[in-house]
Amino acid sequence: MSNGLLTAKDLILRGMTRRWLRRRITLLTFGVFIGAGFVVSLMFGHTFYSLDKVLRVIQGEAVPGASFTVGILRLPRAALAVLAGFSFGLAGAAFQTMLRNPLASPDIIGISAGATAAAVFAIVALSLSAMTVSLVAVAAGLLTALAVYLLAYRGGVASTRLVLVGIGVAAMLNSVTAYYLSQAAEWRLQEAMRWMTGSLNGASWDKAAPVCIALLIFGTLLLGQTRSLLVLQLGDDAAAALGVRVGRTRLVITLAAVGLVSFATAATGPIAFVAFLSGPIASRIIGRGQSLLLPSALTGALLVLTADFTGQFMLGTRFPVGVITGVFGAPFLLYLILRANRSGVSL
Length: 347
What we know:
Oligomer: single chain
Radius of gyration: 21 Å
Shape: globular
Helix content: over 70%
Strand content: under 5%
Mean pLDDT: 83
Largest sheet: none
């Protein structure tokens, strides 16, 4: 009897060790790919610079030609791609885990649509500066999240109801965006379209800095809720029985995730489907039963870096990063819905 118990314990420990190793190896692999993508994005462009010159620029040396192209143009763009992708991926995984629904990502439930509608209104109707537009977008993202939450609240927030309410709110806000675009003067229309497509064009340290600060604050809050998120997957009653303060935890997670999405959207525009794709991709790579926050964040960073490089240099003409992620994200959304329908599972 004791031998059987010891054998079962050994098998459990071996399985836990295997999952731990797989997770560490996966995270390390993601880090290597992100680092490689970051360096490649600094080296390649209309002018190629060797790795030696890129490293010298990063170290602060003055390198003719490279100091401007790499240090002023490419380095802030690559940094913003990583920061925004990390923010979108982390926020998306937090929503999807908390609500136990793969559709519950910020760009599906209307948060990105709220920030976009407000930014387009600020550009077209108010002619505000870029910095003010960003602040308006952040505020609008927070207010949209609050509105969706209140509209979906019925003695609690069911994930399916929140997703449906969010889709309805997003549709309404998209119609507002379309109206103001139809009324815009030509020069304002171009500016608004550049913003709402999701683009890293015009990236600068002034745009990257607020995203970095938001990531340090809200990202730390979210990662600190890793255990609570895992317990919430068991259901509210089970989570409360295990000592999780469900209402407070949901509020903290929601505010932190919305803050990340709002600041990232204000800097880059709504890069489509990154928040939505990162969690499911990470889940398929790392396996179920583990926290997806950090893997999803790294997945998001890699997605944005790869999509931006693809849109800039691999398709014969230049496309904003949001166009590339949208092309790959829309079929994945349809795949998830069809899979759920075939298995009879409610999203």
